[in-house]
Amino acid sequence: MKIQELREKKIEELKVRLQELAVSLHDLNFKVANSQVKNIREIRDVKKMVARIETIICQKELNK
């Protein structure tokens, strides 16, 4: 999802997406520990998306 698409969403939608990513990151960490994931880069991508969403939420809350 691109940053422009994220900026168009409401804060509530972003928080739901953030919770989904947190669960996904948790699952990925367990899979890496069990050597079930071949592409470890997925973890980095999920972490970056979490940071982007948190930044956008913070910006929207400051602009209110």
How would you describe the overall organization of this protein?
With 64 residues, this protein is an all-alpha fold. It has a single domain, classed as Helix Hairpins (Orthogonal Bundle), CATH 1.10.287. It is 81% helix and 0% strand. It is built from three helices and no strands. The radius of gyration is 13 Å and the shape is elongated. It starts with a helix and ends with a helix. The model has no long low-confidence stretch (mean pLDDT 94).
| Straight-line N-to-C gap | 24 Å
The outline comes out as elongated
The figure for the number of domains is 1
Summed up, the helix count is 3
Structural class: mainly alpha
Computed CA radius of gyration, to the nearest angstrom: 13 Å
Protein name: Large ribosomal subunit protein uL29
Keywords: Ribonucleoprotein, Ribosomal protein
InterPro entries: Ribosomal_uL29, Ribosomal_uL29_sf
Pfam families: Ribosomal_L29
